[in-house]
Specification:
Elements lengths: L7 H23 L18 H17 L4 H18 L3 H16 L6 H13 L3 H14 L5 H12 L3 H15 L3 H17 L3 H16 L6 H17 L3 H14 L4 H13 L3 H14 L3 H13 L3 H15 L3 H6 L1 H10 L4 H14 L3 H13 L3 H11 L7 H13 L3 H14 L7 H9 L1
Helix pairs in contact: 1-24, 2-3, 3-4, 3-5, 4-5, 5-6, 5-7, 6-7, 7-8, 8-9, 9-10, 10-11, 11-12, 11-13, 12-13, 13-14, 14-15, 15-16, 18-19, 18-20, 19-20, 20-21, 20-22, 21-22, 22-23, 22-24, 23-24
Length: 446
């Protein structure tokens, strides 16, 4: 059965109607994400940006005077990594990689586990998960009594889709790391992500809440970590269709860390879900000014399109491609985002499918399977799309976008019963999971 083509005017009108209906139905969804105890009130935390910049300048001077100062190289790589987390600027990733490799060129990993640790963490952040896994395994042998190698290993295994092994690594990390301080925060964050993968949104919320309260109890709560936990609580609520709670968490993250780019973009998304198109555009424009992440830029383009600003939308869509193709590093980092962008907008189906296929050959996680399924559908490979979407759903993840893709694939395969079931699940879980795609799901279902 051919995939139905939905015109933009229909999408825009249906989006407005759907938001109105969503506001009437959201009460039941909210029950899945209520906290058993109130979280501490959000408060502004001091910025470390000036200290980080001064430290980078100091360490840069040290390695310039003594290129073989491997300790300074390691510390410099760590500072650059922190800047990536705080700003989203991937330029710092290249600088961190350069510092880590300079350290290891001076002293090999056997005598320089700090350099190997930095390299593995940079590889993970750069989406070179195979290398990060291999170097983390090396670290588990060199630092057998330490917990941190198992954190890096578990993170890499999770991204590679090796979920059982990742869970083993995280439990090993917990046994070696104790239950206090930042180690406890890190463990709770990983347990939350595992819970999310397995469809346990209440468990994920509980673990993120534990991570947040533990981080706040530290003598000097790290601003980015606290903001990240509050943002993740918002993401969990959004996944369950609880848009008011999601908005509250995003705004709390912005109280802690003003201009936190992740929370700004998510606030734009939830305002769109609540029918505030102008407010959503404003938040996304703010986020894109800070960091033009392709997913933010694409979402802003979709909102411009819904608002009838066709030229502005086209400019954003063009920018998505430019960012993805800027250099080889960006190509690896944003490959999946670009493939999904093409598939969502019915562009370059062959390219999207080829990119998703190449990535899935190495990175066989559920979202890689989903990207392969969605791009295969758009490229006309329906049987392959059916096989891949089963792999994407294998953990029982509660994600409206996964259910939506499954529904559209079933519809293309002529399985109307499954199509209705999956599309209903998507729209029941999070009725406005995406301004354009949720409207298409509702149109096909109707």
């Amino acid at each position: 059965m051919p995939i139905k083509v939905i015109r933009l005017a229909e999408v825009a009108s249906l989006f407005i109607l759907a938001v109105a209906l969503t506001s009437c139905r959201s009460g039941s969804a909210m029950q899945t994400t209520k906290l058993t105890a109130p979280l501490p009130a959000a408060q502004l935390l001091p910025s470390d940006a000036d200290v980080e910049v001064q430290t980078i300048r100091f360490l840069g001077g040290r390695v310039e005077r003594d290129p073989e100062d491997f300790i300074a190289h390691n510390k410099l790589a760590g500072q650059y990594r922190q800047r990536v987390r705080a700003t989203g600027d991937v330029t710092y990733l290249n600088l961190a990689a350069k510092a880590a490799r300079a350290s290891l060129a001076t002293l090999p990993p056997e005598q320089n586990t700090g350099g190997l640790t930095m390299l593995a963490q940079v590889e993970y952040a750069s989406h070179d998960f195979v290398a990060a896994r291999d170097h983390a395994l090396q670290l588990t042998k060199l630092e057998a009594s330490k917990s941190y190698p198992y954190q890096i290993l578990g993170d890499a295994l999770l991204e590679l889709g090796e979920y059982d092994q990742a869970e083993v690594a995280f439990h090993q990390m917990e046994q070696l790391g104790g239950i206090q301080g930042l180690t406890r925060v890190t463990i709770e964050q990983r347990m939350a992500r595992l819970a999310t993968m397995h469809g346990d949104l209440n468990g994920a919320q509980r673990h993120f809440s534990n991570a947040l309260t533990t981080a706040l109890a530290l003598p000097a709560p790290p601003r980015e970590t606290v903001a990240w936990c509050r943002w993740q609580l918002g993401e969990t609520a959004f996944s369950a269709g609880d848009y008011p709670t999601a908005e509250r968490h995003y705004r709390d993250a912005l109280i802690v860390f003003p201009d936190y780019f992740r929370a700004l973009a998510s606030l734009g998304r939830v305002r769109a879900a609540q029918g505030d198109l102008a407010g959503a555009i404003e938040e996304y424009e703010h986020a894109v000014r800070i960091i033009p992440d392709p997913s933010f830029v694409a979402a802003l383009g979709d909102l411009y399109k819904l608002a009838g600003r066709e030229k502005d939308a086209a400019a954003q869509y063009s920018l998505v491609e430019k960012i993805g193709r800027l250099n080889e590093f960006n190509g690896a980092l944003y490959n999946r985002q670009l493939a999904l962008f093409y598939a969502d907008h019915d562009l370059k189906a062959g390219t999207a499918y080829a990119n998703a296929s190449r990535e899935y050959a190495l990175r066989r996680d559920i979202y890689g399977a989903d990207a392969l399924a969605w791009t295969a559908l758009k490229a006309g490979h329906v049987p392959e799309a059916q096989t891949a979407i089963k792999k994407a759903l294998r953990l029982g993840t509660k994600d409206a976008r996964l259910f939506y893709h499954a529904g559209m694939i079933a519809q293309a395969a002529g399985d109307q019963s499954s199509a209705r079931e999956y599309l209903k699940r998507a729209l029941t879980l999070s009725p406005q999971f995406d301004p354009l795609q949720a409207t298409i799901a509702r149109k096909v279902l109707g």
